């Protein structure tokens, strides 16, 4: 009988999450709300008389085989719970058993709820995402209305299900997966009042329409107008005329910001109302809670402190080079005007590489020229990306991907050209972009296909509620991890896009040039992401209000990036609104995290492929060992805490900038020496 009691104890605790992972140890009790009383179960079971034990085992077997409605009442009656006084030993035993069976009963209810919820979620989510796809690939008033209506219906359904779950279900008796799923269902910042949800959806539709249809027209020829893609992109990347760049930079902001400023701010107010209803300080706090760590801001701040010295070296050198081109319009010791950095946002600076080449006389890795010589087409870029992922053992893109994706800008209808990937459930994954043949899109194609690989992995291995990334930063990092390998000189030589250089001295100079190009893309980005998201967090907190919305934006740009507006800006303007992610309400700290952890993932896969030498020269294409480990993490989806997912691949639970430092080490060494030689001031204060 004693053995039987021990076996029952084991069975009971197989329903409760007791297995700790290395990364999450110490947080279990808080995270899963376990009662100290659970620790007494084993002792209580051992103390039971054989008669009561037999009664218990019979009742449990009965409860498992009967409906959830009956099992709890049946067991309560059999144990005679109400017949015992609270100060008796028998009462203590019966109360603990009552709680135990209550947990088992709750577990059955949760299982039933989650099965029903996930079945409905799959259908509703596919419908909603199909309508979003339809809207983004054919921007009409009709399609926008269809999506808004479906979005409101979806949020109303979520609200009803969330209320049902919060009133009738607890975390009692659940295992790790069930607890994680239920928390996912209950997590929300949507306002309870339907009027507010409708207002928010309509406001988003309004400002998204302004953004997607924005154009900048020549003052001397009002009929010659430019959309963001490809017109504004081309001007900002190719022009070296200071005044033309200023016209495009200012025109883009004037076409959007003042028109959406009030509506956007109202959206933040509604978002805060919803977040506070759900127990969060504000919407920013809700966004940060998705990362499941209490100190996300301090972690990000620590990473920035390690990254900042590298950025300051880059900033000083770029400022010096821009001064050589634009003269005294660029202050040699101060911040840089934001419009001369090669893109409309001053986000990534790789388009001004021609002005910032460390070794100007040495030809850069001419990827665009090589792609043209190899007769690249847009579709060839996509098939090349597919071949890369397949070479490491990941699955091929599905027939749905090739049949339904929007690879290039269609004729005759307005679309959202901003590159993105869509998960339409199961094998229906797609991308949407207006690709052209160049090195930038070669990168973007691999990035977006990385999203699709992640979709396929968790769609095929996880239940509906776990069909998501370990965190949003993971999703962005997956494709970039692959792209770091693809754009390495080693891989581009394999593809025949570049030719192998046998001259050691010239090879060093070309590598420094290559790393400068990547630094303009990667190291320059951290400041942009951090300025944007810390500004938006301050808006949600109320630190930034309507009265200082735009000035606070530029304070952040100066603090983190050493950037200033090229012309005076006022509170009539709304310059943050020139960015897609601000208008569309997309949390942005994911990109800062992505640009950090992609180097961790990349370094790990390089080690698994037995790469030797400088990290930036690694190409893990063809390594099945790297691919198998990569796939192991992808398959987890959102079923584990992101620290555990990271540990699955890298062996570490923590985000680290060390791989970033190792990747750029040769360049930073060169920059430090060169800035000292030139007498360049480090910083901009």
Percent strand? under 5%
Put simply, the count of helices is: 28
Broad structural category: mainly alpha
* Sheet with most strands: 2 strands, antiparallel
Overall morphology: globular
| Assembly state of the chains shown | single chain
Helix percent reads 55-70%
N-C termini distance: 77 Å
Low-confidence stretches: 7-22, 25-42, 57-87
- The strand order across the widest sheet is 1-2
Q: Cα-atom Rg, whole angstroms?
A: 28 Å
Compute the number of strand runs: 6
Mean pLDDT across all residues, rounded?
87
Which descriptors apply to this entry?
single chain, 685 residues, mainly alpha, two-stranded antiparallel sheet, 28 helices, globular
Concise overview:
By secondary structure, the chain is mainly alpha-helical. The protein has helices at residues 2-13, 28-32, 41-47, 50-65, 68-79, 89-136, 141-168, 176-186, 194-212, 228-238, 242-277, 283-289, 296-326, 353-356, 367-373, 378-391, 399-404, 439-461, 472-486, 489-494, 504-521, 523-541, 549-561, 580-583, 589-608, 624-636, 642-650, 658-678; strands spanning 216-218, 221-226, 336-337, 420-423, 429-432, 563-564. A hairpin with a 2-residue loop joins β1 (216-218) and β2 (221-226).
């Amino acid at each position: 009988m004693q053995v039987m009691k021990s076996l029952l104890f084991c069975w009971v605790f197989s329903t409760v999450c007791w297995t700790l992972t290395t990364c999450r140890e110490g947080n279990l009790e808080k995270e899963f709300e376990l009662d100290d009383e659970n620790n007494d179960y084993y002792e209580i079971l051992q103390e039971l008389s054989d008669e009561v034990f037999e009664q218990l085992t019979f009742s449990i077997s009965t409860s498992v085989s009967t409906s959830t409605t009956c099992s709890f009442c049946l067991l309560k009656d059999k144990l005679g719970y109400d017949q015992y006084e609270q100060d008796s030993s028998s009462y203590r035993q019966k109360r603990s058993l009552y709680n135990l069976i209550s947990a088992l009963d709750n577990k059955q209810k949760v299982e039933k709820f989650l099965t029903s919820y996930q079945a409905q979620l799959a259908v509703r989510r596919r419908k909603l995402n199909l309508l979003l796809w339809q809207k983004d690939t054919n921007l009409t008033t009709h399609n926008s209305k269809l999506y808004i209506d479906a979005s409101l219906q979806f949020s109303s359904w979520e609200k009803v299900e969330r209320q049902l779950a919060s009133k009738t279900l607890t975390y009692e008796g659940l295992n790790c997966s069930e607890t994680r799923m239920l928390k996912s269902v209950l997590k929300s910042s949507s306002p309870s009042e339907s009027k507010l949800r409708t207002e928010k959806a309509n406001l988003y539709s309004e400002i998204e329409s302004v953004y997607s249809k924005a154009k900048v027209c020549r003052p001397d020829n009002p009929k010659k107008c430019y959309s963001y893609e490809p017109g504004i992109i081309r001007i900002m990347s190719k022009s070296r005329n200071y005044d033309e760049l200023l016209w495009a930079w200012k025109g883009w902001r004037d076409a959007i910001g003042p028109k959406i400023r009030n509506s956007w701010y109202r959206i933040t107010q509604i978002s805060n109302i919803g977040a506070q209803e759900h127990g969060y300080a504000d919407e920013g706090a809700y966004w940060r809670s998705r990362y499941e760590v209490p100190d996300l801001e301090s972690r990000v701040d620590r990473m920035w402190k390690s990254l900042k010295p590298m950025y300051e070296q880059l900033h000083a050198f770029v400022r010096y080079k821009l001064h050589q081109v634009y003269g005294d319009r660029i202050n040699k010791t101060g911040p840089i005007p934001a419009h001369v950095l090669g893109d409309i946002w001053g986000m990534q600076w790789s388009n001004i590489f021609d002005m910032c080449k460390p070794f100007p006389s040495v030809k850069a890795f001419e990827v665009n020229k090589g792609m043209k010589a190899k007769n690249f087409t847009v579709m060839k870029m996509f098939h090349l990306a597919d071949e890369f992922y397949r070479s490491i053992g990941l699955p091929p893109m599905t027939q749905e991907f090739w049949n339904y994706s929007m690879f290039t800008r269609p004729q005759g209808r307005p679309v959202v050209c901003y590159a993105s990937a869509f998960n339409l459930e199961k094998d229906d994954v797609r991308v949407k972009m207006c690709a052209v043949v160049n090195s930038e899109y070669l990168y973007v194609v691999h990035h977006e296909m990385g999203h699709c690989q992640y979709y396929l992995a968790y769609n095929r291995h996880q239940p509906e509620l776990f069909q998501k990334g370990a965190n949003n930063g993971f999703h962005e990092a997956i494709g970039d991890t692959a792209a770091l390998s693809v754009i390495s000189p080693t891989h581009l030589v394999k593809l025949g896009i570049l030719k192998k250089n046998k001259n050691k001295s010239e090879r060093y100079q070309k590598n420094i040039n290559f790393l400068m190009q990547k630094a303009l893309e990667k190291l320059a980005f951290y400041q942009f992401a951090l300025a944007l998201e810390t500004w938006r967090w301050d808006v949600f907190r109320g630190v930034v209000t309507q009265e200082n919305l735009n000035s606070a934006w530029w304070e952040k740009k100066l603090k983190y990036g050493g950037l200033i507006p090229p012309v005076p800006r006022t509170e009539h303007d709304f310059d943050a609104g020139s960015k897609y992610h601000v208008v569309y309400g997309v949390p942005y700290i994911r990109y800062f995290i992505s640009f950090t952890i992609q180097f961790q993932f990349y370094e790990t896969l390089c080690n698994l492929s037995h790469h030797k030498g400088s990290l930036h020269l690694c190409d893990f294409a063809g390594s099945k060992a790297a691919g198998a480990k990569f796939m192991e993490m992808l398959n987890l989806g959102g079923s584990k805490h992101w620290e555990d997912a990271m540990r699955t691949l890298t062996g570490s639970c923590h985000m680290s900038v060390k791989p970033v430092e190792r990747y750029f080490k040769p360049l930073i060494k060169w920059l430090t020496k060169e800035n000292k030689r030139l007498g360049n001031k480090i910083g901009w204060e």
